[in-house]
Specification:
rod-shaped
Amino acid sequence: MNKFGSELTPREKELLKIRRDSDTKAAELVKMEKMLQQTKNLLDKKTESMEDLEEKVRSSRRYRRNSLHHTQMLESQMKTVKGELVGTLDHLQELRNVLRRSQQKAEERKVAMEKLAAGLR
């Protein structure tokens, strides 16, 4: 600018335009840096969330494997107990049959003894 505030020279106009453009570009750069930082923060949060989800998936898979193993173990134990119950039931039926035969023989002996006692009178 000249000393008296008159019109600007073409060079001064060009410098003023460059300053304005530079200020505009600087402001845009600040906005872009801010957006970049926000995007980076969002990416960090998403990455952390993804890592948390991956750990949950791994934990769920471990739990499922452990549950499957536990289920298989319980099913095996159940088969063993079922086999033992069948054996016990068979044994109880045999004992019941023996008891019936013993009771029947005892009843027959009682009747025979009563006949003998009646004959001795």
